[in-house]
Amino acid sequence: VRCHLSACAALLLPSKHDLIAAEFDPYKVLGVTRSASQSEIKKVYKRLAKEWHPDKNKNPEAEDMFIKITKSYEILTNEEKKASYDRYGQTDNTHPYGRGHHGFRHNFYFDETFFHFPFNNKGGRDFANSKYTLHFSQYVNEVVPDSFKRPYLIKITSDWCFSCIHIEPVWKETVQELETLGIGIGVVDVGYERRLANNLGAHQTPSILGVVNGKVSFFHYAVVKGHLMQFIEDLLPQRLVEKVTDKNNQEFLKSWHKLNKPHVLLFDQVPSVPLLYKLTAFAYKDYVQFGYVDQGLSETADLLRKFNLNTYAPTMLVFKEDVEKPADIIQAKGMKKHIIDEFISNNKFLLAPRLVNQKLFDELCPVKQFHRRRKYCVLLITGEEESFATGNEAFLSLASDNTNDVLRFAYVYQRRQQPLCDVLLKNKDSTPPQVVILERRNGAGKILYKPVLGGWNGSKEEKHKLLEELERLQKDPSILNCDAVLPELNNELTSMFLTRWIYTAYDYLSEIIADLLHNNWREMMPLLSLIFSALFILFGTVVIQAFSDSSEEKQPKTKAKEASNAENGSPHTSSTSRFFHILLVFLVLTDSTKNILLSKFAKEVYSFTGSLTLHFSFLNVDKHSEWMAAVLEYAQDAVQIDTDEEEVCSRKVDYTGYVLALNGHKKYLCLFKPVYTGEDLDSKPEEEGGGSRSRKGMTRSRSTSLQIHHKLDRLGLWVERLMEGTLPRYYVPAWPGLDKITVNK
What we know:
The radius of gyration is 37 Å and the shape is elongated. Helix 2 runs antiparallel to helix 3. The strands form 5 sheets. Strands 7-9-8-10-11 form a 5-stranded mixed sheet. A 5-stranded mixed sheet has the order 13-12-14-15-16, sandwiched between helices. A 5-stranded mixed sheet has the order 18-17-19-20-21. Residues 1-22, 92-125, 550-554, 557-576, 641-650 and 679-703 have low confidence and may be disordered. By secondary structure, it is α+β, with helices and mostly antiparallel strands. The chain has 27 helices and 21 strands.
């Protein structure tokens, strides 16, 4: 059951009852010592709860004392809360993801408009989240590969997650902004995709996580827009963007030859690198090197004068082989993602890049698909020695003058790509440098090519000869009269593997430390398991024996702890089963009885608000009488209403004071029917009421008020039986849809 967002109200209880900030000693409240056993604490609690219950104790301080007693019992019977109080003197509930900051410490959620059943028939999930819904295969086949180009923000939710409702406005606002930045968004409903939720390591709802480079990281802070934006920024690898000043700009730009990439400089007035620019750097990290220039620094004044830039708008410059003159420029006040993407995509390659792996070869010289989309690759086979410098510079000059998009210029070092060069120079007496014109015919490596005779030293005659061959090629592609099958290119970037591994290890260790600080043990378990496995292998039987002894001692304690947690509804109870046992307990009332019944309802169920499986709400029967009647009508077991036939015919059934507990997943309900235990003033003999009619009316009015107040007298006992599972269950074949909602006229 999901409450409408606009109708989820604040906590029912008055602020004086809120113990979040109160300082008190639970041991003193219950009158027990720190060494008291759980059975002693429970015994004392029952005695004090009966003594100080507001309905039995007329002391003005009884209500506050009763709440303190309940709160103290909640702390001392929960191992984590008790340990936290003993160590820090802290009595707050500390919920993951900052839930304690949003005021839903107690599980009260109110709906004044309508109840919506998202698990009803075909209309299952929230439409706002439907376009982001992820499935297991989609995550594995699409999200994980795509996470190497852009980060993903994923929310784990469920139909019975009331905390998810509270973060929904923040989530929607943040998603709208993140989508404009190109960040992937996903929503996983554990009710439909439990396998994916388990695979991600999400064991509670709501959970928010990020995926970058196939690695999952969890969000640990309060769910506010600023924290989510910072979380995305922290997901990105470090060193994506280099800060450039007057001192290091030449070093940065001249590294194009070593890195074999164009370099992009962003000039802006903000001191920190914009998130959009970092995301762009992450998306194109394999193609372009990115730098950032803060225009507000005095250390960048020379750069601004050199390129004569307007400081009132962000500016991007692309540098290729010429470090003194930008190859392209873009300037705009509101740079949008699609503009930046188009700008970078048009400048992904150098004018004459070096072929360092097969991926670059495939993109630079694609396989022929259609006649009009032919791409010819002009390839220079050369060397790294100084003696080849003149020819290499002449080849680069020719590539710089090229304006024909059909022609792509590139070069290879023979020593690093020996198998490729052996095929292209086959049966030739010439040695590098040598120019070859080729066209790729299929993905298996087949090419048509033609070597330019005479070698290549960069002279005017050789330039003229090459240009003539290229002009002939435009008119007659059949001049490529040689064919061959090329081997896959060697990956020259493998030599950089160690450096990348060190950077990756550093980032990974940083995240491990962050996880340890947040006590995120569920995520850490795979890593801890790996570490312990390594220790077993390294230290052998000694370590194995030590751990086996300790594990045997801890096993009975672990089982006892699990049993205790299961009994008390501890957070360590299996989260997998908890999803199926969440109950919405709501009170049925009317506009006229709302204040009286809600006050009584809050007192009766307050001691149960710490349960993870119970959530409390109310339903206004004036607006939802048809829905209420439909629920009881659809119940497979007849729910008998104690009314006379004449009364049923004369008026509608009075559902005021009824309490329903609904399990949406298993489709059953438990019903509490009000029981009046107070004094019935109307039952007095008529002769005692021989006064006027107005006096009888006053008596009946007072009686009605008392009856309403006492309708929930036995609700606490009913909730205890509900948690014990001893109440009868009425199974519903299908929850009523919105067509059963009565519009308030």
